[in-house]
Amino acid sequence: MALRIFNTASSREERFEPVTKGHVNIYTCGPTTYDYAHVGHARTYIFYDVMKRYLGHLGYKVRHVQNFTDMDEKILRRAIEVDMDPFDLSRKFIDEFLRDMDFLGVMRADLYPRTTEHIHDCIRLAQDLIAKGVAYEANGDVYFDASRTKAFGRLIHESLEDVVTDPLDKVRFENPGKRSVLDFAIWKRSKEWEVSWESPWGRGRPGWHTECAIMSHKYLGPTMDIHGGGVDLIFPHHEAEAVLSEALSGRRSVKYWLHNQFVTYYGEKMSKSKGNLVTARKALELAGPDALRYYLLSTHYRKKMDFSLEGLEAARESLIGIQRTFARSLVGTRRGCKDAGPRRVEACIEHFYSAMDSDFDTGRAIQAINELADLLERKRVRGETRSHVEKALTNFQAILGFSLGI
Questions:
Q1: What angle do CA 99, 104, 108 make, to 5 degrees?
Q2: Tens digits of per-residue pLDDT, 146-191?
Q3: pTM of the predicted model over 0.90
């Protein structure tokens, strides 16, 4: 079975065929660095880690770029709250994020570009788009003219007028020069208290969408294979990023768009104001990296997942049982009176790969591992079958990134 990926742009599973044979370029949107990573972040980056691991297992040479938004209003406001230099604050939480991801077993990206390293690139992009007639300056802001493209809205599959509900009068009150509610900022003039940089339009900083368009284009070329992120980024961020990149290059910017769903906490949206935001670090303290990965991967990435402490503990206990079963089976201490048989073993292994080939369905892949554990709890393996099981489990561990006890 060939790998198939659900493409947000087409709303269907498509056979995966990279732009360049044997190579896969991946861009994932990184965090805005003003706080610790939470379990929603953990789920996102663990999933893309598994995707990358599986593509490598299939023989592809993978190049992965993940940005850090290291300067925006959230960072500036948090810096004021804690009386800290905003650059120091951002650097602190970049380090904390990477520390958490290392503990989670998330493999490092090949490159972690930062917004503040690409200010002049963003200015040049704005100048180029103004010269092409697809952007305009208004009172120190630079906007992309959404009327100049038919591609804006390809990912949401809805009328933009139904999504953007702010009246034009309100938009023009904030900036009289803005032409349409659909136009978005490429460059934003700064307020007096904000960190800013000189530009042809006065002091300001890049728009959020601009930075990702620049960094993905600069490090992965005009058309990348896979662009990933949470569903909350589809609109306006990924919509805007795509039209900026394509206005710059004249080519489709992304072949496959992937978006993972939210994590809730006991059925509610996690938020700091509700006091129900579980940090990745806290979850790691409770269960460890193997159990946390097992738990977060047990639900397909495109389905919402409800996180609970009871669910995390149940996952930890389940994984311990699986690890013990495989460890006993492979050292020959299982007392089953009948052999498992190569066909039944092979069926479980094929189920794992079939699941992974079906849009990286880690939930079904873990079910296949459980089926194999159940089989080996009742039956014994020996000879070539035992070697086959050991090789398969070694591969499963490498792909999913948690120990199976071998």
A1: 65
A2: 999 888 888 988 777 666 766 655 655 567 889 988 899 999 999 8
A3: yes
Q: Identify how many contiguous H helices and E strands the chain contains and give both numbers.
A: 13, 13
Burial 354-371 (b: 16+ CB within 10 A, else e): ebbbbbbbbeebbbbbbb
Whether residue 170 sits in one domain with residue 65: yes
Percent helix / strand / coil, the chain, rounded to 5: 50, 20, 35
The tally of domains found in the chain comes to 2
Domain termination site, one of 208, 237, 265: 265
Q: Which amino acid does the sequence have at 28?
A: T
Range of the domain at 396: 308-400
Contact 126, 142 (CB under 8 A): yes
Contacts of 396 by beta carbon, 8 Å cutoff, 6+ apart: 352, 365, 369, 404
User: For tokens 């094929």, what's the residue?
Assistant: 350
- The string of pLDDT tens digits covering residues 115-138 is 999 999 999 999 999 999 999 999
CATH of residue 80: 3.40.50.620
d(C-alpha 150, C-alpha 243), whole Å: 9
C-alpha to C-alpha distance for 24 and 226, rounded to whole angstroms: 8
